[in-house]
Design brief:
Blueprint (H helix, E strand, L loop, with lengths): L3 E7 L12 H5 L1 H10 L22 H8 L8 H17 L1 H4 L5 H21 L2 E7 L1
Helix pairs in contact: 4-6
Length: about 130
Amino acid sequence: MGMSVFPVFNPELTGVQFEAEGKLLFDQFETLDAIAEAIDAPRFSSFGDDRPIPEDFDGDEDDLEEALGPWDDWYSPVEGLKMVEALIDAITEEPECAEQLDYPEEVVAELAEMKRCLEAAVEQGAQFRLELTP
Protein backbone atom coordinates (compact mmCIF):
# COMPACT_ATOMS: atom_id res chain seq x y z
CA MET A 1 0.00 0.00 0.00
CA GLY A 2 1.94 3.04 1.21
CA MET A 3 1.21 6.65 1.94
CA SER A 4 -0.15 9.15 -0.58
CA VAL A 5 -0.04 12.94 -0.88
CA PHE A 6 -3.09 14.77 -2.17
CA PRO A 7 -4.37 18.36 -2.21
CA VAL A 8 -7.33 19.40 -0.06
CA PHE A 9 -9.25 22.58 -0.77
CA ASN A 10 -11.11 25.12 1.37
CA PRO A 11 -13.83 25.51 0.34
CA GLU A 12 -14.11 22.17 -1.45
CA LEU A 13 -13.82 22.49 -5.22
CA THR A 14 -16.92 22.18 -7.37
CA GLY A 15 -16.70 19.74 -10.26
CA VAL A 16 -13.01 18.95 -9.79
CA GLN A 17 -11.31 16.07 -7.97
CA PHE A 18 -7.67 15.04 -7.70
CA GLU A 19 -7.48 12.02 -9.99
CA ALA A 20 -4.01 10.70 -9.12
CA GLU A 21 -2.92 8.21 -6.46
CA GLY A 22 -0.29 10.56 -5.01
CA LYS A 23 1.91 7.63 -3.93
CA LEU A 24 4.86 8.72 -6.07
CA LEU A 25 4.55 12.26 -4.75
CA PHE A 26 4.83 10.87 -1.22
CA ASP A 27 7.68 8.50 -2.09
CA GLN A 28 9.62 11.24 -3.87
CA PHE A 29 8.78 14.29 -1.74
CA GLU A 30 12.32 14.66 -0.38
CA THR A 31 13.71 14.59 -3.92
CA LEU A 32 11.02 17.04 -5.06
CA ASP A 33 12.05 19.35 -2.19
CA ALA A 34 15.71 19.06 -3.25
CA ILE A 35 14.83 19.86 -6.87
CA ALA A 36 12.69 22.81 -5.75
CA GLU A 37 15.53 24.19 -3.63
CA ALA A 38 17.98 23.77 -6.53
CA ILE A 39 15.74 25.80 -8.86
CA ASP A 40 14.84 28.37 -6.19
CA ALA A 41 11.16 27.36 -6.00
CA PRO A 42 9.04 26.78 -2.89
CA ARG A 43 9.57 23.31 -1.41
CA PHE A 44 6.86 20.74 -2.18
CA SER A 45 6.55 19.88 1.51
CA SER A 46 6.09 23.52 2.52
CA PHE A 47 2.40 23.24 1.60
CA GLY A 48 1.74 20.46 4.11
CA ASP A 49 1.77 20.07 7.87
CA ASP A 50 5.42 20.48 8.75
CA ARG A 51 5.07 20.95 12.49
CA PRO A 52 7.88 19.17 14.33
CA ILE A 53 7.06 15.91 16.08
CA PRO A 54 7.57 16.30 19.84
CA GLU A 55 10.83 14.68 20.96
CA ASP A 56 9.09 12.60 23.63
CA PHE A 57 6.36 11.30 21.27
CA ASP A 58 6.28 7.51 20.86
CA GLY A 59 2.67 6.78 19.80
CA ASP A 60 1.10 6.03 16.44
CA GLU A 61 -0.16 8.46 13.78
CA ASP A 62 -3.60 8.92 15.36
CA ASP A 63 -2.00 9.80 18.69
CA LEU A 64 0.31 12.28 16.94
CA GLU A 65 -2.65 14.27 15.62
CA GLU A 66 -3.99 14.47 19.16
CA ALA A 67 -0.57 15.45 20.56
CA LEU A 68 -0.06 18.23 18.01
CA GLY A 69 -3.61 19.55 18.08
CA PRO A 70 -5.63 20.85 15.15
CA TRP A 71 -3.86 22.08 12.05
CA ASP A 72 -5.59 25.01 10.37
CA ASP A 73 -3.03 26.25 7.86
CA TRP A 74 -4.16 26.89 4.28
CA TYR A 75 -2.09 28.14 1.37
CA SER A 76 -2.54 30.18 -1.78
CA PRO A 77 -3.19 28.05 -4.87
CA VAL A 78 -1.25 30.68 -6.85
CA GLU A 79 1.86 29.87 -4.80
CA GLY A 80 1.15 26.16 -5.15
CA LEU A 81 0.89 26.57 -8.92
CA LYS A 82 4.28 28.30 -9.02
CA MET A 83 5.81 25.36 -7.18
CA VAL A 84 4.13 22.67 -9.31
CA GLU A 85 4.88 24.42 -12.61
CA ALA A 86 8.52 24.98 -11.61
CA LEU A 87 8.90 21.29 -10.70
CA ILE A 88 7.25 20.11 -13.92
CA ASP A 89 9.48 22.40 -16.01
CA ALA A 90 12.64 21.32 -14.16
CA ILE A 91 11.87 17.60 -14.45
CA THR A 92 10.88 17.76 -18.13
CA GLU A 93 13.58 20.18 -19.28
CA GLU A 94 16.59 19.41 -17.06
CA PRO A 95 17.93 15.83 -17.37
CA GLU A 96 19.84 16.14 -14.09
CA CYS A 97 16.54 16.82 -12.28
CA ALA A 98 14.70 13.94 -13.95
CA GLU A 99 17.58 11.56 -13.14
CA GLN A 100 17.06 12.17 -9.41
CA LEU A 101 13.56 10.63 -9.54
CA ASP A 102 12.75 6.93 -9.76
CA TYR A 103 9.83 7.47 -12.20
CA PRO A 104 10.08 11.01 -13.59
CA GLU A 105 7.31 10.70 -16.19
CA GLU A 106 4.84 9.34 -13.64
CA VAL A 107 5.81 12.01 -11.10
CA VAL A 108 5.20 14.67 -13.77
CA ALA A 109 1.79 13.13 -14.48
CA GLU A 110 0.83 13.36 -10.79
CA LEU A 111 2.14 16.94 -10.63
CA ALA A 112 0.16 17.81 -13.78
CA GLU A 113 -3.00 16.49 -12.11
CA MET A 114 -2.25 18.63 -9.07
CA LYS A 115 -1.71 21.62 -11.38
CA ARG A 116 -5.17 21.06 -12.92
CA CYS A 117 -6.76 21.10 -9.47
CA LEU A 118 -4.80 24.17 -8.34
CA GLU A 119 -5.89 26.05 -11.48
CA ALA A 120 -9.49 25.26 -10.56
CA ALA A 121 -8.82 26.45 -7.00
CA VAL A 122 -7.57 29.79 -8.34
CA GLU A 123 -10.73 30.13 -10.46
CA GLN A 124 -13.01 29.14 -7.57
CA GLY A 125 -11.24 31.21 -4.91
CA ALA A 126 -10.28 28.23 -2.74
CA GLN A 127 -7.17 27.79 -0.63
CA PHE A 128 -5.33 24.47 -0.42
CA ARG A 129 -2.93 22.32 1.53
CA LEU A 130 -1.28 18.95 1.03
CA GLU A 131 -2.37 16.10 3.25
CA LEU A 132 -1.31 12.47 3.68
CA THR A 133 -3.39 9.35 3.62
CA PRO A 134 -2.43 5.71 4.18
